[in-house]
Amino acid sequence: MRLPLFVASALLSVSIAAHASPVVYTFTGDFSGTLGTTSFSDDFGTFTFTGDTSTVVGSGGYYYNTAGVSTITLEGLGTATFLSSTFGAESQSNAGAFYDSATDFGVGTESSAFAAYSLTAPFGPITGSFITNGAIAESTSLGDLSIASETGETTFTAAAAATPEPSSLILLGTGLLGFAGAVRKRFA
């Protein structure tokens, strides 16, 4: 009796995941600052936040999404994961940014194009002036990150994340059923 219940819940989990709306927000530019004890100057960097559009919160021209994983990749230094649960992507009337409401760390792209963007659909790329809240440090897996400046313009993009097509999900479900049958037969 327990085995059919397990299989049914596994298939339900797969079907729920198929209806999610994953999105990847990116912010790129040539940054100067420090990561841990290492200084960098005019290094190309990519902030990435992978989340789901169903977790976007906000209204009236201010939206944010913190339910996901955020990283920064800097040329020559590698990729660091942001450690704060309040760090994520935001859109306000004049900018798209990566922001932490707990520390006030913030970097982004300034553009009036964000006035109508609610973080819930693919968007951009939007290139504009760099904005920041100053050289505030943010905790990452490679030490504290501080962005002191940026050279040139920055770009903010939101793209739909790759999701498995239905035939892959059906194949996965069939495999789970076969596995469950083999386990049941072995213990019967």
Structure in words:
- By secondary structure, the chain is α+β, with helices and mostly antiparallel strands.
- It has helices spanning 2-18, 166-187; strands at residues 22-35, 38-52, 57-59, 62-65, 69-74, 78-81, 87-92, 95-100, 106-110, 123-132, 138-140, 143-160.
- Strands 1, 2, 3, 4, 5, 6, 7, 8, 9, 10, 11 and 12 form a twelve-stranded antiparallel sheet that branches.
- A hairpin with a 2-residue loop joins strand 11 (138-140) and strand 12.
- Helix 1 (2-18) runs antiparallel to helix 2.
- The longest helix has 22 residues, at 166-187.
- It is globular.
- The two termini are 12 Å apart.
- The model is unreliable at 5-19 (pLDDT under 50).
List the helices and strands and how they pair.
Blueprint: H1 2-18, E1 22-35, E2 38-52, E3 57-59, E4 62-65, E5 69-74, E6 78-81, E7 87-92, E8 95-100, E9 106-110, E10 123-132, E11 138-140, E12 143-160, H2 166-187
Antiparallel strand pairs: 1-2, 1-12, 2-5, 3-4, 4-7, 5-6, 7-8, 8-9, 9-10, 10-12, 11-12
Helix pairs in contact: 1-2
Distance between the termini: 12 Å
Shape: globular
- How many domains? The number is 1
Helix % is: 10-25%
Largest sheet: 12 strands, antiparallel
**Gyration radius, to the nearest Å?**
21 Å
Structural class designation: alpha+beta
What is the overall number of helices?
2
Beta-strand residue fraction: over 45%
Low-pLDDT ranges: 5-19
Average predicted confidence as pLDDT? 85
Order of helices and strands: HEEEEEEEEEEEEH
What is the count of β-strands?
12
